[in-house]
Amino acid sequence: MSWMPGDRREPVESMIRVDQAGEFGAIRIYAGQLAIMGSRSPMSGKIAGMAAQEERHRAYFDREIVARGVRPTLLQPFWSVAGFALGAVTAAIGPEAAMACTAAVETEIDKHYDDQLKALGTSEPALSEAIAEFQAEELEHRDTALAHGAEQAPAYPLMSAVIRLGCRVAIAAAKRI
Asked: Can you list the alpha helix ranges (DSSP code H) found in the chain?
C-alpha cells in the first residue's frame, strides 16, 4: 500500500513499527507481572503462555521490520520500563488487577488490529493474515483475563479506562516516533 500526502490511511511501515512496539510492550507487561507474582502463583502458567504468544508475534514483526527496512520506534527503551512497571504495579495490587491490565490492553489491541485489517483490505494478504491470527490470540488473552477475575479488580472501570487510554497514546506515539 503506498501512501500519499493527504491520504488518511496508515502507511504499512507505521503499522509494522507500532505493532512491533506493542508486542514488545506486552512482553514487558507480562515480565513485570511474573516478577511480582512469581512462578508459584496460580496465574503464572497462563501469563507465561500469553507472554510466549506475544514473543512469537514480536518475532514476526521483527522480521518484517528488517525485511521492509522499517525504522523501529525510538521509544523502545521507554516501553521497556513502562511496560514492566505497569505489569509489576498491577500484579502488586493483586492477581485480579493483573488480569484487569491484560483485559484492558487486549481490548484496545483488538480494536487497533481491527482498524489495521480494514485499512489493509486486500493489499497485503500475508500481513493481514498474520494480524488476523494475532488478533484472535489477543482476544483469547482478553477472555482468559476476564475469566480469571479482571472485573473484580479494585476500581476496575477506572483502571481499565486509564490503561486503555495509555494504550491509545502509546499507539499514536509509536506510529510517529
From this structure: 12-37, 44-68, 76-93, 95-120, 125-147, 156-176
